[in-house]
Specification:
This protein has one domain: tt1808, chain A. It contains 5 helices and 13 strands. 21% of the residues lie in helices and 28% in strands.
Length: 191
């Protein structure tokens, strides 16, 4: 199938058949284009501040995890949040850290421990509402929302079935709660 149609519901199996060179995500069976709109021949790349922040975060996290059992992955990397109960929610977060036991050939099958979404104009609302709720329901322990425009990071930590949120800004050092001793200086990230 070349690409999904509006007003249809899909599963991960359907998603794997799309061959239109665009990056799609599924949320409860509904397909969403990652960047641009359906008229694009192919999905445009994210803006350079988005790419720079993602690259710096990946570099810092990968360095910290060197020689440890966990690993950080970057998009495109499929995160299938409900593979056992419908397999109709598939996201491609900017960065992911997950238990090696749930890794698959193309991503992870189940809730990762740590997810980073870097806001883009076309995904801003979904990252803050749909993905926030989906990651919460799936049990993602730490969910970061990076806003390159405002140079902030909203850290959402799972506690007693709810996210406790803290926002960090200019000059702050953000602890990665999942990784004891790992910190990200926002002055470096947004420099």
């Amino acid at each position: 199938m070349p690409s999904p149609e509006k007003n249809q519901r899909y599963t991960y199996d359907d998603y794997c058949t799309w061959d239109d060179d665009k990056r799609w995500e599924l949320y409860e069976g509904v397909a969403y284009l990652m960047f641009g709109d359906e008229s694009c021949v192919r999905s445009p790349a994210p803006a350079w501040p988005h790419q720079r922040a993602g690259g710096k975060l990946h570099h810092r996290l990968a360095g910290f995890l060197e020689g440890k059992p966990l690993e950080v992955f970057y998009a495109p990397f499929d995160v299938r949040l409900n593979p056992e109960t419908g397999d109709d929610t598939v996201f491609q977060p900017d960065l992911v850290i997950c238990d090696p036991a749930i890794l698959s050939k193309t991503g992870c099958k189940g809730a990762p421990d740590f997810v980073v979404e870097i806001l883009s104009p076309s995904t801003r609302s979904r990252d803050r509402v749909q993905k926030f709720n989906a990651y919460l329901q799936a049990g993602v322990r730490e969910y970061w929302i990076v806003d390159t425009d405002n140079q902030t990071i909203m850290v959402n930590l799972l506690e007693n079935g709810k996210y406790v949120s803290s926002t960090y800004g200019a000059g702050d050092i953000v602890p990665v709660h999942l990784l004891d001793g790992c910190e990200i200086a926002l002055s470096d990230l947004f420099a």
